[in-house]
Design a protein that fits this description.
about 30% helix; two-stranded antiparallel sheet; alpha+beta; about 30% strand; about 190 residues; 8-stranded antiparallel beta sheet
Length: about 190
């Protein structure tokens, strides 16, 4: 661990997709989490140091068809992403021990970090969404002859009937991101 500071050295492993931090390291861990998500290709949607939350916009992937994408933590995820139109979004939360943070107007986590008193948990959640386009009509002769139904009202408005459904968590990627954040804190 070399020249890392004491709060960074005490960043220890916790349950899957999370790790423990000291209050004094809050600002550094928060910045590291944001930087790690950017390096992984996620577009940051919300950065709220007061409430201790970082969220990303959903990131699409092609699985095996996009080998440069590091979103999949397992070979099965690579395969599944190649077959289905899926995307992932990340939410990182900071939870100090013994402090109720449900209402961001009542407590500012930046103050908790400045006090340097106590410890907490950093949790990384990765949500897997599937994109659906209804109206697929499969032809019995050939897949190439398949078509989609079209709603003329939506078409006139320039809209496409597409919706997403959050259907699973990705604990493997959450654990991988949490470990990258933890290692990034130690190396700073």
């Amino acid at each position: 661990m070399g020249g890392a500071s004491a709060p960074a050295q005490r960043a220890a492993a916790a349950p899957e997709g999370s790790f423990r931090i000291d209050a004094a390291g809050y600002a550094r861990v928060f910045e590291t989490a944001r930087d790690v998500l950017r390096r992984q290709g996620f577009k940051i949607q919300r950065v709220d140091a007061r409430a201790g939350v970082i969220t990303t916009s959903p990131k699409p992937t092609g699985g095996l068809l996009t080998p440069w994408d590091s979103q999949q933590a397992t070979p099965y995820a690579e395969f599944e992403d190649a077959l289905a139109n899926q995307r992932r979004s990340v939410r990182v939360t900071f939870e100090p021990d013994g402090i109720e943070t449900g209402d961001p107007t009542t407590y500012d986590l930046r103050l908790w970090g400045e006090t340097g008193v106590g410890s907490g948990t950093v949790r990384v959640h990765v949500t897997l969404e599937r994109i659906h386009r209804p109206g697929w009509r499969v032809d019995t002769q050939s897949v190439r002859l398949a078509t989609r139904t079209q709603d003329p009202v939506l078409r006139r408005r320039g809209m496409d009937p597409v919706y997403t459904v959050a259907f699973a968590q990705d604990p493997e990627l959450a654990s991988e991101l949490a470990e990258r954040i933890r290692r990034g804190v130690i190396s700073r």
